[in-house]
Design goal:
Layout (H helix, E strand, L loop, with lengths): L2 H19 L6 H13 L1 H13 L4
Helix pairs in contact: 1-2, 1-3, 2-3
């Protein structure tokens, strides 16, 4: 597995874990969309998720 592949895997796992365990603001449908995005476009999804969801005030 290449270095980029490992980074992509870590990004996907982080987004999926954070969406389903820590982000209570999202509906189940939104969580499913983030999960599919994380599987398909892991690094890009992680960057978008970080800037759109993690920085939102509670």
């Amino acid at each position: 597995m290449s270095f980029i592949g490992i980074i992509a895997l870590v990004c996907a796992v982080w987004v999926i874990y954070d969406v389903w365990t820590k982000n209570d603001r999202l509906t189940d449908t939104e969580k499913l969309v983030w999960t599919i995005g994380a599987v398909l476009l892991s690094i890009i999804t992680a960057i978008i998720y970080y800037f759109t969801q993690k920085n939102k005030p509670a």
